[in-house]
Amino acid sequence: MTARDIEYRSKLFPPDAVIADIKSAEVIDEGLKRSGVSARVKIVVGGDRSGWSSYDEIKRENDQAFAEKTSQDDYILAFFTSGTTGLPKIVGHTATTYPIGHLSTAMIINVRPGERHNNLSAPGWAKFAWSTFFPPFTVGATSVALYYEGRLPIDRYMQAIEDEKINTLCMPPTAWRLARASVNMSQYKFEYLREIVAAGEPLNPEIYHWFKEATGKEIRDFYGQTETTAMIGNRPWYINGGIKPGSFGKPTPLYDIVLLDDDFKEITAPNTVGHIAVRLKIWRPIGLFREYIGNPEKMREAFIEGYYLTGDKAYFDEEGYWWFVGRADDVIKSSDYRIGPFEVESVLVEHPAVAEAAVVGSPDPLRYQLVKAFITLKPGYKPSKDLAVDIYRHVIRSLPRFKIPRIIEFVDDLPKTISGKIRRVELRELEAKRKKSGVRVEHEYYYEELRDLIEKEVETNK
Fold it and tell me: What pTM does this model have?
């Protein structure tokens, strides 16, 4: 996090105590200084810093303490959301919403007493409580945390999963895509690894197929939010034939999940895109957060007519499997079509050169928006017109014409939240600014300009 991040959070929710490693301490001091907030206690781990107490001093404190008298409705956790679509909000969870609510998450992960669980997530984010903390400790399993600095060393991380005899593993699709681009997964036996799940963003079908082919094991995708626990997922018993790659499963019994149209009417027809919502008219799920602390406006936007609106869009098929479309404000409107970015991104990453892709709407005077893909490449590939043509040919074979990207831009990296989610909002803002100023950047390729090259080859191969 940056000093600006700390400043923003400290102004909204001033901390009484801070525990940080030596590298973060300097940033935190700057952020607190900017915010005008001073914490009563500051403890540094792994070094010494002026104005901070050493973590070792805790060992000299009394190991007995009187428990505070608390209520089941008292707040015990306040998470700042990742801010994919705006400034982070404060999500308040109580002494019951996460400890008990995460029974749904423990069920989806299928963590068992006495086993060893690992979750790739940074402390301080809801995903850490989601998987590292509550599910394993609730059932009596061991939580194994692996520490690293800087960019994820995915090869070393996978080796640690093997060496530490991890039984259940939770990793975000971002990490799985990184592994696919740089790790020979077939070198690992994973003989202790019993369950593998992904969460945080949709799991591309290509990643599922790649991992199963390399290891014989399946990754189960599931869905929830900082505001909730696991709401929709592929159950443990879905393996060996019950998983539909690309689907994030079916609703869990803890939540009454429905789809709503733009008029807040429930959708009953399959294959109809709507807003994912939690129906509160029959019961209020234990795992649902209490409020956006200090933000009544956001509460009014999220809780409408007896429903909690997640802000995400999806559809379900004839068999009740749910398919993610995108954030409600990520959906691209081109001509008369509404296009979810995830399906387009999933097809793009199937191309052998593509490491990651982020799809957004690019302003257009005729169609309102054009589908634009920002693409990072795997090692050994370089941006070029020929590569753009080849990627265009690839997507034409897999997507209907109205969904294919009309612009491809090769970039070195994609903007992400600290928890690893792609910040499409940042890409949209960048694209709008460029279009307004008429700027055309290097390594940006337009479908219309390459149409003859693209479609000639496609027609030849039909």
Answer: 0.78
Alpha-carbon distance of 276 to 328, in angstroms, equals 9
Q: Which residues pair with 54 in a beta bridge?
A: 44
Q: Are residues 456 and 383 in the same domain?
A: yes
Q: Are residues 265 and 338 in the same domain?
A: no
Same domain, 355 and 384: yes
Place of tokens 């093997």: 162
315 and 385 housed in the same domain: no
Q: Are residues 106 and 159 in the same domain?
A: yes
CB 46 within 8 A of CB 59: no
d(CA 376, CA 439): 21
Whole-number pLDDT of residue 461: 53
Distance in angstroms (rounded) separating the CA atoms of residues 307 and 299? 11
pLDDT of residue 380: 94
Q: Which pLDDT score, from 0 to 100, does residue 83 have?
A: 53
Q: What is the CATH number of the domain that holds 243?
A: 3.40.50.12780
- Amino acid (one-letter) located at 141: A
pLDDT in tens, 168-210: 999 988 889 889 988 999 899 999 999 999 998 789 899 999 9
Question: What CA–CA distance (Å, rounded) separates 127 from 224?
Answer: 10
> What pLDDT shows up at residue 172?
87
222/232 Cα distance (integer angstroms): 6
Domain residue limits at 28: 3-60
Residue after which a domain boundary falls, among 271, 293, 326: 326
65 domain-assigned? no
Per the listing, tokens 């897999």 go with 398
| Buried/exposed 427-441: b ≥16 CB within 10 Å, e otherwise | bbeebeebbeeeeee
- Whole-number Å distance between alpha carbons of 374 and 283: 42
- Looking at the structure of the chain, the number of domains it has is 3
Looking at the domain assignment, is residue 146 inside a domain?
yes
Are 214 and 258 part of one and the same domain? Answer: yes
Answer yes or no: do 446 and 342 share one domain: yes
Query: What Cα–Cα distance (Å) separates residue 177 from each residue in 146, 195, 352, 449?
Result: 19, 18, 12, 30
- At 2, the pLDDT band (50, 70, 90 cuts) reads confident
Would you call 319 exposed, middle or buried from its count of C-beta atoms within 10 A (0-12, 13-18, 19+)? exposed
pLDDT in tens, 48-62: 999 999 999 888 889
